[in-house]
Backbone:
Protein backbone atom coordinates (compact mmCIF):
# COMPACT_ATOMS: atom_id res chain seq x y z
CA UNK A 1 0.00 0.00 0.00
CA UNK A 2 1.17 3.51 -0.85
CA UNK A 3 -0.13 6.79 0.57
CA UNK A 4 0.48 10.07 -1.32
CA UNK A 5 0.01 13.28 0.64
CA UNK A 6 0.30 16.89 -0.33
CA UNK A 7 0.55 19.36 2.55
CA UNK A 8 -0.94 22.82 2.02
CA UNK A 9 -0.32 25.77 4.33
CA UNK A 10 -3.51 27.77 3.87
CA UNK A 11 -3.38 31.40 5.02
CA UNK A 12 -5.76 32.45 7.81
CA UNK A 13 -9.03 33.71 6.39
CA UNK A 14 -8.74 31.70 3.15
CA UNK A 15 -9.92 28.37 4.59
CA UNK A 16 -13.43 28.57 3.10
CA UNK A 17 -12.06 29.47 -0.37
CA UNK A 18 -9.56 26.62 -0.24
CA UNK A 19 -12.21 24.10 0.83
CA UNK A 20 -14.68 25.24 -1.82
CA UNK A 21 -12.04 24.94 -4.56
CA UNK A 22 -11.23 21.37 -3.53
CA UNK A 23 -14.70 20.13 -2.73
CA UNK A 24 -16.13 21.09 -6.11
CA UNK A 25 -13.35 19.77 -8.33
CA UNK A 26 -13.78 16.59 -10.37
CA UNK A 27 -10.89 14.28 -9.57
CA UNK A 28 -11.61 11.43 -12.00
CA UNK A 29 -10.08 9.13 -9.38
CA UNK A 30 -12.93 6.68 -8.81
CA UNK A 31 -12.22 4.57 -11.89
CA UNK A 32 -8.42 4.83 -11.82
CA UNK A 33 -6.72 1.38 -11.61
CA UNK A 34 -5.18 0.78 -8.19
CA UNK A 35 -6.88 3.77 -6.56
CA UNK A 36 -8.30 2.88 -3.13
CA UNK A 37 -9.43 6.05 -1.38
CA UNK A 38 -9.00 9.83 -1.26
CA UNK A 39 -9.52 12.20 1.68
CA UNK A 40 -9.29 15.92 1.92
CA UNK A 41 -8.02 16.50 5.47
CA UNK A 42 -8.06 19.55 7.68
CA UNK A 43 -5.15 19.49 10.13
CA UNK A 44 -3.77 21.62 12.94
CA UNK A 45 -4.05 25.38 13.06
CA UNK A 46 -0.72 27.14 13.44
CA UNK A 47 0.10 30.78 14.11
CA UNK A 48 -0.08 31.97 10.49
CA UNK A 49 -1.82 29.12 8.65
CA UNK A 50 -4.03 26.04 8.78
CA UNK A 51 -2.48 22.79 7.56
CA UNK A 52 -4.55 20.83 5.02
CA UNK A 53 -3.59 17.55 3.35
CA UNK A 54 -4.78 15.80 0.26
CA UNK A 55 -4.44 12.12 1.20
CA UNK A 56 -4.75 9.36 -1.39
CA UNK A 57 -4.33 5.65 -0.81
CA UNK A 58 -3.10 3.38 -3.62
CA UNK A 59 -2.77 -0.39 -3.90
CA UNK A 60 0.90 0.01 -4.92
CA UNK A 61 3.41 2.78 -5.64
CA UNK A 62 3.33 1.73 -9.31
CA UNK A 63 -0.44 2.42 -9.49
CA UNK A 64 0.14 5.92 -8.11
CA UNK A 65 3.02 6.55 -10.53
CA UNK A 66 0.95 5.42 -13.54
CA UNK A 67 -1.82 7.84 -12.52
CA UNK A 68 0.62 10.79 -12.31
CA UNK A 69 1.54 10.13 -15.95
CA UNK A 70 -2.07 9.92 -17.15
CA UNK A 71 -4.31 12.36 -18.98
CA UNK A 72 -6.74 12.19 -16.02
CA UNK A 73 -4.02 13.49 -13.70
CA UNK A 74 -3.29 16.39 -16.03
CA UNK A 75 -6.99 17.23 -16.20
CA UNK A 76 -7.54 17.09 -12.44
CA UNK A 77 -4.63 19.47 -11.86
CA UNK A 78 -5.61 22.04 -14.45
CA UNK A 79 -8.83 23.03 -12.71
CA UNK A 80 -10.22 26.27 -11.33
CA UNK A 81 -7.79 28.77 -9.88
CA UNK A 82 -8.62 30.97 -6.93
CA UNK A 83 -8.84 34.71 -7.44
CA UNK A 84 -7.00 35.35 -4.19
CA UNK A 85 -3.77 34.01 -2.66
CA UNK A 86 -4.52 30.90 -0.60
CA UNK A 87 -1.12 29.47 0.32
CA UNK A 88 2.05 30.15 2.26
CA UNK A 89 4.56 28.65 -0.18
CA UNK A 90 4.15 25.69 -2.53
CA UNK A 91 2.56 22.39 -1.41
CA UNK A 92 4.91 19.87 0.15
CA UNK A 93 4.59 16.37 -1.33
CA UNK A 94 5.32 13.29 0.78
CA UNK A 95 4.93 9.67 -0.34
CA UNK A 96 4.68 6.84 2.20
CA UNK A 97 5.03 3.06 1.93
CA UNK A 98 3.10 0.97 4.47
CA UNK A 99 5.37 -1.35 6.48
CA UNK A 100 2.62 -2.67 8.75
CA UNK A 101 -1.18 -2.59 8.78
CA UNK A 102 -3.45 -3.40 11.73
CA UNK A 103 -7.18 -3.49 11.03
CA UNK A 104 -10.09 -3.37 13.43
CA UNK A 105 -11.38 -6.71 14.64
CA UNK A 106 -14.87 -5.22 14.45
CA UNK A 107 -16.43 -4.62 11.00
CA UNK A 108 -16.84 -0.90 10.36
CA UNK A 109 -14.47 0.11 13.20
CA UNK B 1 -13.37 10.27 10.24
CA UNK B 2 -10.25 11.32 12.12
CA UNK B 3 -6.62 10.50 11.26
CA UNK B 4 -3.91 10.76 13.93
CA UNK B 5 -0.32 10.89 12.73
CA UNK B 6 2.95 11.06 14.58
CA UNK B 7 5.95 12.07 12.46
CA UNK B 8 9.33 10.61 13.44
CA UNK B 9 12.64 11.85 12.09
CA UNK B 10 14.77 8.71 12.29
CA UNK B 11 18.54 9.21 12.06
CA UNK B 12 20.36 7.60 9.17
CA UNK B 13 21.58 4.13 10.08
CA UNK B 14 18.87 3.59 12.74
CA UNK B 15 16.06 2.67 10.34
CA UNK B 16 16.23 -1.08 11.04
CA UNK B 17 16.24 -0.53 14.83
CA UNK B 18 13.26 1.81 14.59
CA UNK B 19 11.29 -0.59 12.40
CA UNK B 20 12.05 -3.57 14.64
CA UNK B 21 10.94 -1.65 17.75
CA UNK B 22 7.61 -0.75 16.12
CA UNK B 23 6.88 -3.98 14.31
CA UNK B 24 7.21 -6.12 17.41
CA UNK B 25 5.19 -4.00 19.83
CA UNK B 26 1.69 -4.97 20.93
CA UNK B 27 -0.65 -2.06 20.24
CA UNK B 28 -3.91 -3.41 21.74
CA UNK B 29 -5.69 -1.40 19.04
CA UNK B 30 -7.70 -4.12 17.31
CA UNK B 31 -10.48 -4.23 19.89
CA UNK B 32 -10.55 -0.51 20.75
CA UNK B 33 -13.99 1.08 20.10
CA UNK B 34 -13.95 3.36 17.05
CA UNK B 35 -10.54 2.17 15.83
CA UNK B 36 -10.54 1.58 12.07
CA UNK B 37 -6.97 0.98 10.88
CA UNK B 38 -3.32 1.55 11.76
CA UNK B 39 -0.34 1.81 9.43
CA UNK B 40 3.33 2.22 10.11
CA UNK B 41 4.54 4.30 7.16
CA UNK B 42 8.00 4.88 5.74
CA UNK B 43 8.23 8.27 4.06
CA UNK B 44 10.79 10.35 2.19
CA UNK B 45 14.51 10.23 2.89
CA UNK B 46 16.01 13.62 3.68
CA UNK B 47 19.63 14.69 4.08
CA UNK B 48 20.01 13.72 7.74
CA UNK B 49 16.99 11.50 8.45
CA UNK B 50 14.20 9.29 7.12
CA UNK B 51 10.63 10.40 7.85
CA UNK B 52 8.36 7.73 9.35
CA UNK B 53 4.73 8.16 10.38
CA UNK B 54 2.45 6.22 12.64
CA UNK B 55 -0.94 6.64 10.96
CA UNK B 56 -4.16 5.63 12.72
CA UNK B 57 -7.68 6.04 11.38
CA UNK B 58 -10.61 6.52 13.79
CA UNK B 59 -14.36 6.66 13.24
CA UNK B 60 -14.52 10.01 15.11
CA UNK B 61 -12.21 12.37 16.98
CA UNK B 62 -14.03 11.40 20.20
CA UNK B 63 -13.07 7.73 19.70
CA UNK B 64 -9.42 8.73 19.34
CA UNK B 65 -9.57 10.98 22.41
CA UNK B 66 -11.15 8.22 24.53
CA UNK B 67 -8.34 5.87 23.54
CA UNK B 68 -5.63 8.37 24.55
CA UNK B 69 -7.14 8.39 28.05
CA UNK B 70 -7.31 4.60 28.34
CA UNK B 71 -5.13 2.11 30.17
CA UNK B 72 -4.44 0.41 26.80
CA UNK B 73 -2.92 3.64 25.48
CA UNK B 74 -0.66 3.91 28.52
CA UNK B 75 0.44 0.29 28.08
CA UNK B 76 1.16 0.63 24.36
CA UNK B 77 3.35 3.70 25.00
CA UNK B 78 5.38 2.23 27.85
CA UNK B 79 6.99 -0.48 25.72
CA UNK B 80 10.54 -1.39 24.85
CA UNK B 81 13.09 1.37 24.60
CA UNK B 82 15.94 1.32 22.13
CA UNK B 83 19.49 1.12 23.44
CA UNK B 84 20.68 3.70 20.93
CA UNK B 85 19.41 7.14 19.86
CA UNK B 86 16.91 6.78 17.02
CA UNK B 87 15.42 10.25 16.57
CA UNK B 88 16.24 13.81 15.61
CA UNK B 89 14.05 15.64 18.10
CA UNK B 90 10.68 14.60 19.55
CA UNK B 91 7.86 13.20 17.36
CA UNK B 92 5.55 15.76 15.81
CA UNK B 93 1.85 14.98 16.33
CA UNK B 94 -0.75 16.07 13.76
CA UNK B 95 -4.48 15.31 13.90
CA UNK B 96 -6.65 15.54 10.78
CA UNK B 97 -10.42 15.71 10.24
CA UNK B 98 -11.71 14.34 6.93
CA UNK B 99 -13.73 16.93 4.97
CA UNK B 100 -14.26 14.75 1.92
CA UNK B 101 -13.86 11.06 1.08
CA UNK B 102 -13.81 9.51 -2.40
CA UNK B 103 -13.72 5.72 -2.58
CA UNK B 104 -12.82 3.45 -5.47
CA UNK B 105 -15.70 2.38 -7.68
CA UNK B 106 -13.98 -1.02 -7.95
CA UNK B 107 -14.01 -3.32 -4.91
CA UNK B 108 -10.50 -3.73 -3.52
CA UNK B 109 -9.09 -0.75 -5.43
Residues:
Amino acid sequence: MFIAMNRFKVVKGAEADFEELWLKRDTHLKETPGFVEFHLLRGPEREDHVLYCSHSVWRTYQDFEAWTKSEQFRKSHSGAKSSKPLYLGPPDFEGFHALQTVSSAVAGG
User: Anything to note?
Assistant: The interface with chain B takes residues 1, 3, 19, 22-23, 27, 29-31, 34-44, 51, 53, 55, 57-59, 63, 94-106, 109 of chain A (CB under 8 Å). Strands of chain A lie at 2-11, 35-45, 49-58, 92-103. Chain A has a mean pLDDT of 90. The longest helix of chain A spans residues 15-23.
